[in-house]
Amino acid sequence: MNKLRFIPLLVAGALALSAVPASAATMLDGTVGPGFTMTLTKGGQKVTSLKAGSYTFKIADKSAIHNYVLNGPGIKNKEITGLAPMGTKSATVTLKKGTYTYYCSPHTSSMKYTFTVS
Ligand SMILES: [Cu+2]
To answer: Which residues have CB atoms below 5 A from the ion given as ligand 1?
Structure first.
């Protein structure tokens, strides 16, 4: 077996990997419950505006009566955490320019928050 035969494949593989942009999703942290409140923070600061791009929402659901739903351009009422199972769940999404809302669907009137993406 001639090892040289595999070198072109390795080079092609390396090129393919380097062509992928190294853009990891930005981490956002959120909570819902145990009271009638929700949060969304980035590096400990409340999120009010973000740049368009890829984000991972890491949501700690601390109540069995609330959920955490995200809605906005390109994302239609995505339920990141559900009503019954508590715990932490993550979802990676692409945010586009516009206004996004995160809310709890049983309590939309009091648990609804917005942030803008530019
Ligand atoms: Cu709720």
So the answer is: 66, 104, 106-107
